[in-house]
Write a structure and sequence with these properties.
four-stranded antiparallel sheet, 12 strands, 46% helix, 282 residues
Length: 282
């Protein structure tokens, strides 16, 4: 009886084992047959992913505000616009050292930034603000000897494209090619404007705790107009004195007001110009 049961089990199990081994051989054959296709699919998928990543990099890089040197079409130039913060900054910079240049009567306007090499950090800060509008990275100037001191100086500069969005600033701040302070300066002058005017054209005296604004190139009437805004709007008690032109002095008693007003918006490398720590020390 035991032998009969054993033979019966063998008769049942062996066919299943036979079918299992046949299935295993078939599956192995299929894998070997189609393995090149699987490899191709894997390589293809990786290629698709790499291509997608490259497309994203190229697309996103074109959306970033980076400098490039190609000539812009009229449509491209007209697409540029200025956010409100940059408009306020430009008001202060134009009252300072910034040159707003119109090469011909009917041409668009470009901005010309220049600082001594000692203020490299500040110039690079300005470049970061305006690099969207600039065709090239900042460059250094050739060494130039100062006729008064005999010292040799190296500067850094960059220009923007000539763009329609800058034209309004030339119309406001230039009369017959000469920089002026417009009568409506109060409508556009903000703490952000003052911060960049001080950063660009201000100086701090450690001994007297006064801030000086080098407004020498403007007329007395224009400087008095700016002083009236500073005094009436922020109670800065400014005075005007003559030092090879008309210069604005903000007294020591107003220094805390200036520091509170400007420290949140002023470039950190120029905080020393309001008696606080900063990057540059000149």
């Amino acid at each position: 009886m035991f032998l009969t049961l054993k033979h019966t089990l063998i008769g049942i199990v062996l066919p299943f084992l036979y079918i299992f081994f046949l299935s295993l051989i078939a599956i192995s054959s299929i894998i070997l047959l189609y393995s090149p296709a699987f490899i191709f699919y894997d390589d293809y998928s990786q290629s698709i992913e790499a291509g997608t990543e490259l497309f994203n990099i190229l697309f996103l890089s074109n959306m970033l505000p980076i400098a490039h040197s190609k000539r812009l079409t009229k449509i491209e130039k007209e697409a540029f616009w200025l956010p409100e913060e940059l408009k306020q900054i430009l008001v202060g910079l134009i009252l300072g050292d910034l040159n707003v240049q119109k090469q011909t009567k009917n041409s668009n306007v470009r901005l010309c930034f220049k600082q001594g090499l000692v203020h490299k950090e500040y110039l690079m800060h300005l470049y970061e603000l305006f690099k969207t509008y600039s065709p090239a990275l900042p460059k250094t100037t050739n060494p130039v000897a100062d006729k008064r001191t005999g010292n040799t100086y190296i500067g850094m500069w960059f220009n923007t494209y000539s763009l329609p969005c800058f034209n309004i600033f030339y119309d406001m701040f230039y009369l017959d090619g000469k920089k002026i302070i417009p009568l409506n300066i109060g409508d556009m002058f903000t703490p952000l404007s003052l911060a960049y005017l001080v950063a660009d054209d201000g100086g701090f005296c450690k001994s007297t705790k006064r801030i000086r604004l080098s407004t020498n190139s403007f007329t007395l009437e224009e400087v008095n107009l700016l002083v009236a805004i500073l005094n009436n709007r922020w109670n800065l008690n400014c005075a005007v004195y003559n030092n090879n032109g008309h210069v604005i002095s903000i007294p020591a008693k107003s220094l805390p007001v200036v520091q509170t007003l400007l420290s949140p918006v002023m470039p950190s490398v120029m905080l020393h110009k309001i008696g606080l720590s900063g990057g540059d020390n000149l």
